[in-house]
Design the sequence.
């Protein structure tokens, strides 16, 4: 234990030195990217508990170093950050009072969230570009690992699959591709968060397409597309289609009439070419336990709203999902996972918690630029198919996206600084 602590301190000292050597206007960005990489590698459910704990504490330390080394900067997105922090405080308070066993778990999540919100809200133009580039790079690496998993290892890299209670490994069949292919998960150990990471990378790729040769963008896009298909996440495919459609619709490169024509022709061609496969996929989806469980989750809403007023408003506390199942408030279909974050939030964080989640998502969307809005579309749609507040990496990404400054926000200080230098 002492040796591990010494190694950890030495690693943090090396990280601190590295961040300080980075230019001041890139230090927070470097810290956020490094924290994200650490979480991607070691925060997945299949990683050993000691690794998960180490990367969470390490990521928090890295973010704190980046904040201190990056100096004081004006924070942007005040209303979004305020709503998100109120949500964290309310959930933390309710969890302490009602679910003390989960207090430490949520405290770590909340600390990471606050550090991410503060760090990202003060990004410079360089740091914003750095983060978008990191999204793309991480996506390419994850897509590559997914291909290796699919073709060679047949198990997620590096930690393998999280075992069931009986010691068996999950065998998730890909509902998107034909045959009995297994879904891939990359370093995250689960197909849906893996596909979310790739979806965010795809949005960053399209949003920054003018910064690289077209052939390179097409190649990267093909790799990311392959990764999403191998993940087998239908929800992420829908979310990605909406996000890319939004980026196309809001692009300055084409006129409104041209955009309408492109979207209309694309939809018609897609229906003509893929109608048989689409019809079969819809039939499989509607008949699958995956769909019925997610759709059936909404049946729990009346019971959750009928609880004692205080619990109905504030919930039973973070991490109390199993208790809600045992009380008969969550669906009693034998599948003990909601896979619908909105319903889970209503249960564990109450109506107030749900309204705060909707509040920071809507506020960030309305105040964001087209890139942030496209990111948020990915994260919002997947709320309906995955309880990702329990996944450190995806919750961290949500906080990063919520606070991501718009291109205009970061360009104004840079222009002002150039004006002063030229005066």
Sequence:
């Amino acid at each position: 234990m002492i040796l591990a602590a010494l190694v950890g301190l030495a690693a943090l000292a090396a990280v601190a030195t590295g961040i300080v050597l980075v230019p001041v206007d890139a230090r927070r960005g470097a810290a956020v990217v490094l924290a994200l990489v650490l979480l991607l590698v070691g925060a997945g459910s299949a990683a050993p508990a000691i690794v998960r704990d180490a990367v969470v504490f390490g990521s928090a330390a890295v973010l704190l170093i980046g904040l201190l080394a990056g100096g004081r900067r004006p924070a942007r997105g005040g209303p979004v950050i305020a709503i998100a922090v109120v949500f964290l405080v309310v959930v933390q308070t309710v969890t302490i009072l009602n679910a003390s066993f989960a207090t430490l778990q949520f405290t770590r999540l909340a600390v990471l969230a606050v550090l991410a919100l503060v760090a990202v809200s003060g990004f410079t133009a360089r740091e914003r570009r750095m983060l978008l580039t990191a999204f793309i790079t991480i996506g390419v690496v994850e897509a590559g690992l997914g291909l290796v998993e699919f073709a060679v290892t047949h198990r997620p890299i590096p930690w393998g699959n999280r075992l069931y209670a009986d010691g068996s490994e999950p065998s998730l069949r890909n509902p998107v591709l034909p045959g009995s292919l297994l879904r891939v998960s990359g370093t995250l150990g689960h197909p849906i968060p893996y596909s979310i990471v790739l979806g965010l990378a795809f949005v960053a790729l399209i949003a920054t397409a003018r910064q690289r040769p077209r052939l390179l963008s097409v190649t990267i896009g093909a790799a990311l597309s392959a990764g999403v298909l191998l993940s087998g996440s239908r929800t992420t495919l829908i979310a990605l289609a909406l996000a890319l459609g939004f980026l196309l619709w809001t692009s300055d490169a084409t006129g409104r009439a041209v955009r309408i024509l492109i979207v209309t022709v694309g939809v018609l061609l897609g229906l003509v070419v893929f109608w048989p496969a689409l019809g079969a996929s819809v039939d499989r989806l509607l008949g699958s336990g995956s769909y019925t469980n997610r759709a059936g989750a909404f049946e729990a809403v009346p019971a959750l709203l009928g609880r004692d007023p205080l619990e109905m408003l504030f919930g039973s506390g973070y991490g109390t999902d199993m208790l809600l199942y045992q009380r008969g408030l969550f669906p009693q279909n034998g599948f003990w996972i909601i896979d619908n974050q909105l319903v889970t939030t209503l249960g564990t964080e109450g109506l107030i918690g749900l309204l705060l989640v909707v509040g920071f998502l809507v506020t960030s969307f309305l105040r964001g630029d087209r890139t942030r809005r496209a990111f948020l579309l990915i994260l919002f749609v997947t709320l309906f198919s995955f309880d990702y507040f329990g996944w450190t990496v995806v919750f961290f990404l949500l906080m990063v996206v919520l606070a991501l400054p718009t291109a205009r926000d970061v360009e104004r200080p840079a222009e002002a600084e150039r004006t002063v230098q030229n005066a």
